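Table S2 (continued). Query chain:
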Amino acid sequence: MNLDIDFVRAQFPAFEQGSLAGQAFFENAGGSYTCRPVIERLMRFYTQRKVQPYAPYEASRLGGAEMDEARSRLAAMMGVEADEVSFGPSTTQNTYVLANAFRQFMQPGDAVIVTNQDHEANTGPWRRLAEEGFEVREWQIDPETGHLELSKLEELLDERVRLVCFPHCSNVVGEINPVVEITALAHAAGAFVCVDGVSYAPHGIPNVGLMGPDIYLFSAYKTYGPHQGIMVMRRALGEILPNQGHYFNAGSLYKRFTPAGPDHAQVAACAGMADYAEALAWHHGVEGSAAERAMAVHDMMRAHEVQLLQPLLDYLTAKNSVRLIGPADATLRAPTVALALSANGEDVAADLAQQGIMAGGGDFYAVRALQAMGVDMQRGVLRLSFVHYTNKAEIDKLIQALERVL
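Corresponding output:
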């Protein structure tokens, strides 16, 4: 089923703004445009519900109900239970809280596995467990391709490993890692699994229940919502990890790993992300359960992105002056494309801005991955990232601008 790109773009007020007219947005990996239902829900909460939630008076009751709605609807989309979804101020903060829980949970001699493909937010907190005497093992990428080889993981797994942490896809390599297979390997060795989905979820909310990881993390501000970190914590793990919240909330799974009070308005507004996915499903005639509709929307988004991405990859791989980081096959990766150039990535991004292209340059907190691949960190990379609301005209505009700038 082809994605109706005109309908999609009509759901994002950014495309109606004169200040953004004539500019093509290719820094989506840093944060997406916000969809209309999220904006409307946020405005409604701030104007009608901005009181302490869950009290018996009407404004409070409705505010609490909207927060609960966000949790239950996102959980249904991901194929998990409502109380297995929690919100925090950011995915980085959620990961730090989790690392502290594992610090208290693990025993002397236990080990965790991390990768050097990750954004630092999903590797740094786990690596710091080494300071507490735990072993940290690194699953290393191929220095030429950035690929994570499953056989290398198998070599690291043994009965001492308690947790395997890896990205669904890297924010610079872009390759989509096989979550189901990796999870199966880790579980067979007796380890839990934590997946950083921040760079993947913008391309379609995944069915976490079917994939099987114990923890799945992503950021609402990159999935068309407000600035919140969203975490799936499966019950079997969540109930045995030490409580990180208020002691009297220990019996509530979704409160066990949120030591700070949630941002009520932003949590409530996250229901707008579900509204948006439902609107796409309805418009395209998709039926079934919430999880089935979400998967259909996911597949439409991915198909549209792959169709737009392949011509860009073909153009870039034909350039001798460009090193494409990650796969050249669009079906194997997200449309997050990092390029190592002879020039400084930030300087090239500035040149592209003069051509009406919004992009970024630097290391994007993926220093370990770029260093492992031999990228000159003084120059960094140019990163071009898009999502399903990008259209063909914008891809054409990007290629034309790259031709002039490169």
